[in-house]
Automatic annotation (TrEMBL), chains A, B:
<dbReference type="Pfam" id="PF00155">
    <property type="entry name" value="Aminotran_1_2"/>
</dbReference>
<keyword id="KW-0808">Transferase</keyword>
<feature type="domain" description="Aminotransferase class I/classII large">
    <location>
        <begin position="66"/>
        <end position="355"/>
    </location>
</feature>
<dbReference type="InterPro" id="IPR015424">
    <property type="entry name" value="PyrdxlP-dep_Trfase"/>
</dbReference>
<dbReference type="GO" id="GO:0008483">
    <property type="term" value="F:transaminase activity"/>
</dbReference>
<dbReference type="InterPro" id="IPR004839">
    <property type="entry name" value="Aminotransferase_I/II_large"/>
</dbReference>
<dbReference type="GO" id="GO:0030170">
    <property type="term" value="F:pyridoxal phosphate binding"/>
</dbReference>
<dbReference type="InterPro" id="IPR015422">
    <property type="entry name" value="PyrdxlP-dep_Trfase_small"/>
</dbReference>
<protein>
    <recommendedName>
        <fullName>Aminotransferase</fullName>
        <ecNumber>2.6.1.-</ecNumber>
    </recommendedName>
</protein>
<keyword id="KW-0032">Aminotransferase</keyword>
<dbReference type="InterPro" id="IPR004838">
    <property type="entry name" value="NHTrfase_class1_PyrdxlP-BS"/>
</dbReference>
<comment type="similarity">
    <text>Belongs to the class-I pyridoxal-phosphate-dependent aminotransferase family.</text>
</comment>
<dbReference type="InterPro" id="IPR015421">
    <property type="entry name" value="PyrdxlP-dep_Trfase_major"/>
</dbReference>
């Protein structure tokens, strides 16, 4: 148990209230700064992004947009239509432009695909990102495939294939690496799923965290995008907010069969990118930018590895295997995750995600993002200190009892 | 007939190709600049915005975002959720926050409302903004109410009411002022429609151009928003791109019954605003900004009035009545609108919208936006010169024939 002073207890309650208001997501850092003015937030370890890639983007943005006075154009003029932006990505992604659907953030693509194509029964592995089941339309059945704690919440591919075969859904969802635990399923294993389950009309694979995963020490970029032409039921969803830390710009894309793109565009999504998102997409597809991004992507992966291995040495917590830029951490018995997160925030200014609301987790969990190496050092020290404090308190309480 | 040199003829063909690619909308100014590098575009009179309001927004943006270094936050952090932004507008709009739905541009609200609520039969006045009928889902009937040329494409309210009564649709759409002609229906007349047609489940009133309309010489802002609590079937759609010239930011809102907002938010639209849009909405609701905006709104209305009255004096064209910031112009017999628009662009650098694709217009029409007074002077001179040239050519051709 963590003890709080009466003033701290007020902050804990306020934090819990804000969390409830944000539904199955976390309150934004803006909201926290506004509503918890007394708390000095130093590190946002709730935000799942590569800070070095953000730096790189800002460098280009400052030089090409701010310093040239192009910012006004980006705000004033209509951005290009969906198809035009899709075309700018085609060569870079090595995907036919007719397979690319541009989204106002990945969340819009999730919504569009689930609303328009998931018509009968959806199988979703849990714990996972909640929008996939929250956006399912009334009348469509949702079947949860509970990932097992004893498997570290990793996907058992053989079991999964037979489960899907027996349920005969029209849509299945795989987030790879998964959120909130970061478990990764190899490309070959997902390809086995695709081979075995051709009757599933939509195999949605969310690769929003794939830039942080790797299968060998060249750290080459993984993705299923190139398989879209082979498997007509494959739908790849990609957020740009995680790789580049540009959540405020709202940029994502989906790779899917041309008929699905046609269906969506015939009925909407015309000007769903803003001027900044269009600039971002055009930059993302440029060779000079891509080369520099690749450097900071690998630098960040290596730092993640180090961060996770040091976290695993911290006594008292269990760190689940992750190939994303975050880890799921199980707290020692007797510590409420909401209290631990509040303590980290109040005493150390570190904002971390409580995982109480994640369906499918049993125990007290937090999700911790990897930030810059300096911030990671600070996070490690603070977590250790916070645990020592909590465990000492725990001991004291036991003695009192 | 307008004659072109062979080089000009190439540009005309390219322009028509770009128009076809843009579907029922206009190619963006970006696309034009990119694909027609030889043409020097001086005035975008296709773009329907108040340039003084854009100046005002940029002034605030520069001071509060650029100069304070907050731009990075706007790009990096998740914006607030839909409900949070709705709440910031409630007091300013004098509308219950539960009635406000925030959109990624008005086009997203049109799509959301038409997709989710128009289930059986939609009546749409034409000519109008095409997305209202393009986004209707398969299986839903669309009935066009053809506005009459002899009525200057203005709505005959009594005829409309009896037409709707005989068709018994679940959804009707009114754009006020209408696009592409700017015809305005008074608030009292729309209220009569609402009173007479309570059986229509959705009365969608698109007020995207309402900031330019007025009913007396105080030029007070018109809107039906405050009537939403009285008429549960009223759905008001509002773009911010026209009043403020911030189409690249993508900001719009809808006012509708709380149960409609709940239905939409239960199923998506969580983070559909970007960081810049959130800043814009918060600014829009601020008293200091609203006061200064009101000044430039009225200044622009007065200049529009002058522009339209001078246009009416130009011989050979017919200018239709408008209460928006644009006019529909019918060209003299023998001049193709596509040629006229090309001539204006190639010789004078003025970009104007062809209206060939608007269902419901018979004749050769263009839609011309009002810009700043200096630009309007230039537009007037250029149109006159272009007409003189065309008419002289016409005369020459007749003599040759």
């Amino acid at each position: 148990m963590i003890n709080f002073t009466p003033a701290e207890r007020q902050i804990v309650l306020q934090l819990e209230r804000l969390k409830r208001q944000a539904g199955s997501h976390s309150p934004s850092i803006f909201t926290l700064r506004q509503k918890l003015a007394d708390v000095d937030i130093k590190v946002d370890a709730c935000f799942l992004s590569n800070p070095y890639a953000t730096e790189l983007f800002i460098e280009y943005f400052n030089r090409e947009i701010l310093e040239t006075g192009r910012m006004r154009d980006l705000m004033e003029c209509y951005p290009s239509q969906n198809r035009v932006i899709a075309e700018t990505l085609a060569d870079f992604l090595r995907v036919d432009r007719r397979r690319i659907f541009i989204g106002n953030g990945a969340i819009e693509i999730i919504q569009a695909v689930i609303h328009n194509f998931a018509r009968r029964k959806v199988i979703i592995n849990i714990p996972t990102f909640s929008s996939y089941y929250e956006y399912v339309k009334p009348g469509v059945e949702v079947v949860f495939n509970l990932l097992k704690k004893e498997d570290h919440y990793e996907l058992d591919v053989d079991e999964y294939i037979s489960m899907v075969k027996s349920h005969q859904p029209d849509t299945i969802v795989l987030i790879n690496p998964n959120n909130p635990n970061g478990a990764y399923t190899k490309v070959s294993a997902i390809q086995r799923i695709l081979e075995e389950l051709p009757f599933v009309e939509q195999v949605i694979v969310d690769e929003s965290f794939i830039h942080f995963a790797y299968e060998d020490e060249s750290y080459g970029l993984m993705s299923l995008s190139h398989l879209a032409s082979r498997y007509p039921n494959l739908v790849v969803v990609k957020s740009m907010s995680k790789d580049f830390g540009v959540a405020g710009i709202r940029a994502g894309y989906g790779i899917m069969s041309p008929d699905r793109v046609e269906t969506l565009l015939a009925n909407g999504y015309l000007w769903n990118s803003n001027g900044l998102a269009e600039y971002f997409f055009r930059l993302y597809a440029r060779e000079d930018f891509a080369r520099r991004y690749e450097e900071v992507r690998i630098k960040y992966i290596l730092e993640n590895l180090q961060f996770i291995s040091r976290l695993k040495q911290v006594e008292g917590i269990k760190v689940y295997p992750s190939m994303a830029n975050f880890v799921l951490i199980e707290l020692p018995a007797g510590i409420r995750s909401a209290d631990f997160v509040a303590k980290l925030l109040i005493t150390y200014g570190i904002y971390v995600r409580v995982c109480d609301d994640k369906i499918g987790l049993e125990g007290q969990f937090i999700r911790l993002a990897s930030r810059s190496s300096i911030e990671n050092d600070y996070i490690l020290q603070s977590i250790s200190a916070c645990l020592d404090f909590s465990l000492v308190k725990e001991l004291e309480n036991e003695q009192v009892d």
